[in-house]
Amino acid sequence: MKNINPTKTEAWKKLEAHYNETKDQSLKSLFENDSERAAKFTTKWEDFYVDFSKNKITEETKSLLIDLANECGLKEAMDAYFGGEAINKTEGRPVLHTALRASKNADIKVDGENVMNEVEEVKAKIKAFSSEVIQGITKGYTGRNFTDIVNIGIGGSDLGPVMVTEALEFYKNHLNVHFVSNVDGDHVHETIKDLNPETTLFVIVSKSFTTQETLTNATTIRNWFMKTAPEDEVSKHFIAVSSNVAKVKEFGIDENNIFPMWDWVGGRFSLWSAVGLSISLAIGYPNFDALLSGAQKMDEHFKETAFENNIPVLAGLLSVWYNNFYKAESEAVIPYSQYLHRLPAYLQQAVMESNGKSTDRNGDKVDYQTGAIIWGEPGTNSQHAFFQLIHQGTKLIPADFIGYKVSLFDDKDHHYKLMANFFAQTEALLQGKTEDEVREELSSKGMSEDEIKELLPFKLFDGDKPTTSFLIDKLTPESLGKLVAMYEHKIFVQGVIWNIFSYDQWGVELGKQLASTILNDMDSKAIENHDSSTSSLLKVFLG
Ligand code: F6P
């Protein structure tokens, strides 16, 4: 992979000049001056219609951003990524979540070995296990069928499975799937309080099997289980997904109940592996497989499509454009589907743990902005919450709008209302409302000139707020796989341009280390070794 400060490239300099020339051109004027604009900036691919036209770009912007991608070696970087090179350099690992959904005939090598056999073996194990639990062939220790599944994991070992299970709830079978992630005991006890140990299966998911939260929760749950069940029945109810087999066995889990994962799959990109076991249990293996196949189609699109029409490439470059030139600090993700309510939270980890870095690939501090802050909630709820700030606040917040042509229950009345809001919001954000329009509206309500004058400034909308619309045929396992893989590749594109390592997460370590020191200090009441604020907090807490 190339190692270049993006701000020193020719393309960056041209983009700076271009930004200064075009920054005052309104989106509205761009549409007024070009009746073909929507068509020019829309990419149609399979069941995706992606409209980039409501972004603050011209054809020149697009072409300069593509020049930037070329100068930063995006194509070579993509070859390294898909080819299994150790692009996660600080951990010395390849980044191959794409192998988890590749065709079984693919030849993807890690240390000279094709990994596809292992991948297929684990898939077969997921398929067999989930089918047997769903069909009631595998039973609990008293011979009763499983009714409930509890996924115990955190971060990437939780967010992907929760997000997908919620997103695909329509496709769910009879199993109730619960997620315990926080080390907050109230989370665990609240989750298990109504569960029957005889009919509950626990899936402990931890790549490292050293994560404090997961091990604490798993231990609490195992103790709760053993209050009613004999100890030797633990093996029928506890299974683990991990790359640390030794630690899993130490915990007391039967070797046959371990689903392996690999160092070359990052936690936040692992839902396609056995980490997705609870997904396969919830929606059945054929649907899990369709999710994977959607992701694989997006992988092919990303690899094979010219940058001009490449959805993740364009999405990643646009994000660089707003982040580094418009100085936008955050990006909103607004799904117009309640099923996708955990997508923003999932993307917060994927995006911010990946690109929240300030050291470049030389080990030097960057002198430009990197990872954007991601946030969001489903529309229309978010319209009644934070849209005020997007419309009339002082910050520029590019937003992705994600919606579907049809709803799953096919309730047209609701769906038309939902999507009318999607289209209206993107239009309102683009157009705004002028002084003349406000004046006309108020005077048609019979207001006097004085009243209009007083209220007018507050009713103005500047508009000119960028959005990208993802209009997808239908929420299916396959289309969800495509959408998630699109964001994964967008993250990759951004990391390449920003010249950072997107696949490590050293920034989470310090807090973990200090928490363990403080826990010891709390036990031994040695609370004076901290700054005065922390010591006082500890004193008040310990009473
Ligand atoms: O938050 C740090 C992190 O390492 C994430 O990257 C990961 O997804 C999460 O913790 C859980 O890790 P593990 O699967 O090893 O328990």
Low-confidence regions: none
What do we call the CATH topology of the largest domain?
Answer: Rossmann fold
**Ligands bound, unique:** 6-O-phosphono-beta-D-fructofuranose
CATH architecture of the largest domain: 3-Layer(aba) Sandwich
Number of separate domains: 3
Calculate the terminal CA-CA distance, rounded to whole Å.
54 Å
CATH superfamily of the largest domain: Glucose-6-phosphate isomerase like protein, domain 1
Number of strands: 13
- What class do helices, strands and sheet pairing give? alpha/beta
Radius of gyration: 25 Å
User: What's the mean pLDDT score?
Assistant: 97
What level of helicity do the residues show? 40-55%
| Principal-axis shape | globular
Percentage beta strand: 5-15%
Q: What's the main sheet like?
A: 6 strands, mixed
Summarize the topology.
Blueprint: H1 10-22, H2 27-32, H3 37-40, E1 42-45, E2 48-51, H4 59-71, H5 74-82, E3 109-110, E4 113-114, H6 116-135, E5 148-152, H7 159-167, E6 176-180, H8 185-192, E7 200-205, H9 212-228, H10 234-237, E8 238-242, H11 245-251, E9 258-260, H12 277-283, H13 285-304, H14 311-325, E10 330-335, H15 343-355, E11 373-375, H16 387-392, E12 399-404, H17 412-431, H18 435-444, H19 449-459, E13 467-472, H20 477-498, H21 509-524, H22 532-542
Parallel strand pairs: 5-6, 5-7, 7-8, 8-9, 10-11, 10-12, 12-13
Antiparallel strand pairs: 1-2, 2-13, 3-4
Helix pairs in contact: 1-4, 4-14, 6-12, 7-12, 7-15, 12-13, 13-20, 14-20, 15-20, 18-19
Residues 154-157, 206-208, 211, 214, 267-268, 353, 505, 508 line the site of 6-O-phosphono-beta-D-fructofuranose.
